[in-house]
């Protein structure tokens, strides 16, 4: 069990067991009831903490199937059990196998099947229910997810742009757990940002912190790549990676984790612009950005992305020493989030209008807005 902060749980493990089937009655050919199944179901405003509090022993079982009796020849079916959980959860069978995802309230998944009731098929012996250890992993819900190599300045950025106070230090892998911060705008709009542990090449193979934290960017609306303009080197025995190379390698890690993560709107923050020689390096980086596939040729094939992230903005910043650059970034992020939101909203408008047969009018209206 991982604790983020106070009562915030990131993942929990539960033991779930389907109810056993009842006993059949051979003399009368009586068939017993099957055991109850166990489900997990998303309930509005639920949290993993509440799931834990509801049953601290973490063992959940379905109801026992009724025996077949002389005066009630067909046994009663055991009661199903539903475990309330929050939405935004990946349900896994212990190990790594995913059983499914729950993204909306009311969605449910069966996690353990009840045993069959006693019948001629099993010599009238009720069967045991399935027993599983399952892991419920929460995917954070943030508007913006920070993605970057270690030491690039992600936590420094979150400190500068919000009131959150994640740990900052000059060594890699300072951030061990996701942290959320809130960006506040003068019109009271709030945007959330998730600071995540640094990623390095081969994260998919669990190098560094591994890429398990990428699940937290699955539900974000926008990816903010944070790169150190000077590039990165983990240590003397590791290769140096230029800023461009870190972008390519991050792109690959995202693609491997989930290919469509690469399609999310993305912004590139080029950090540490206060350091010597930064301008020249930025210049090279910007040139490289238009020929990423070419630059990636120097890597072995397994590090070369097949799908490319496309950045709508490249914002040079200094998270540590230049608050104005961070203010500018904050404005750009707001603008992009509003833009993408409007995009979704106008799609919805069109669908609804189509249903009412007024699509023509709307299209005229939209094209006017564009000019
Ligand atoms: N010169 C300079 N240093 C910076 C800047 N931003 C961050 N740093 C320094 O870079 C180091 C790493 O910063 P962090 O914010 O901890 O980096 P991170 O990306 O969160 O690193 P991990 O948590 O390890 O992934 C710290 O020593 C920061 O002070 C910047 O704009 N300019
Ligand atoms: Mg950090």
Automatic annotation (TrEMBL):
Domain OBG-type G as annotated: residue spans: 142-337
Gene Ontology BP, a term: ribosome biogenesis
Record keyword GTP-binding present: yes
Domain Obg: 6-141
Domain of life: Eukaryota
Record-given protein name: GTP-binding protein 10
InterPro entries linked to this entry: G_OBG (IPR031167), GTP-bd (IPR006073), GTP1_OBG_dom (IPR006169), GTP1_OBG_dom_sf (IPR036726), OBG_GTPase (IPR045086), P-loop_NTPase (IPR027417)
Keywords for this protein: GTP-binding, Nucleotide-binding
GO CC entries: mitochondrion
Pfam family, one: GTP1_OBG
GO molecular function, one term: GTP binding
């Amino acid at each position: 069990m991982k604790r983020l902060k106070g009562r915030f749980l990131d993942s929990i493990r539960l033991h779930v067991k389907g109810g056993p089937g009842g006993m059949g009655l051979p003399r009368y050919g009586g068939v017993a009831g099957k055991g109850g199944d166990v489900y997990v179901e998303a309930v509005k405003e639920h949290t993993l903490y509440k799931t834990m509090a509801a049953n601290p022993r973490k063992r959940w079982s379905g109801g026992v199937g009724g025996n077949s009796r002389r005066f009630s020849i067909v046994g009663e079916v055991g009661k199903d059990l539903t475990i309330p959980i929050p939405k935004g959860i990946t349900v896994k069978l212990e190990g790594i196998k995913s059983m499914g995802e729950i993204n909306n309230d009311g969605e449910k998944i069966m996690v353990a099947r009840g045993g069959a009731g006693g019948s001629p098929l099993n010599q009238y012996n009720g069967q045991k229910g399935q027993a599983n250890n399952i892991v419920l992993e929460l995917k954070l819900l943030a508007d913006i997810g920070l993605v970057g190599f270690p030491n690039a300045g992600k936590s420094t950025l979150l400190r500068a742009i919000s009131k959150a106070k994640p740990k900052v230090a000059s060594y890699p892998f300072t951030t061990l757990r996701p942290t959320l911060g809130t960006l506040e705008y003068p019109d009271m709009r709030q945007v959330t940002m998730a600071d995540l542990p640094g990623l390095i090449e081969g994260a998919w193979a669990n190098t560094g912190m591994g890429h398990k934290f990428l699940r937290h960017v699955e539900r974000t609306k926008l990816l903010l790549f944070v790169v150190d303009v000077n590039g990165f080197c983990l240590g003397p025995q590791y290769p140096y990676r230029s800023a461009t190379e870190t972008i390519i390698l991050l792109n690959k890690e995202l693609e491997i984790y989930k290919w469509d993560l690469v399609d999310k709107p993305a912004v590139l923050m080029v950090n540490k612009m206060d350091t010597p020689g930064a301008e020249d390096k930025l210049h090279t980086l910007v040139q490289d950005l238009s020929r990423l596939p070419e630059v990636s040729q120097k890597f072995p094939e397994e590090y070369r992305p097949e799908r490319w992230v496309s950045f709508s903005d490249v914002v040079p910043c200094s998270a540590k020493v230049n608050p104005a650059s961070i203010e500018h970034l904050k404005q750009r992020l707001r603008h992009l989030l509003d833009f993408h939101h409007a995009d979704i909203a106008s799609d919805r408008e069109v669908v609804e209008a189509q249903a009412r047969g007024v699509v023509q009018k709307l299209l005229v209206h939209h094209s006017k807005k564009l000019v």
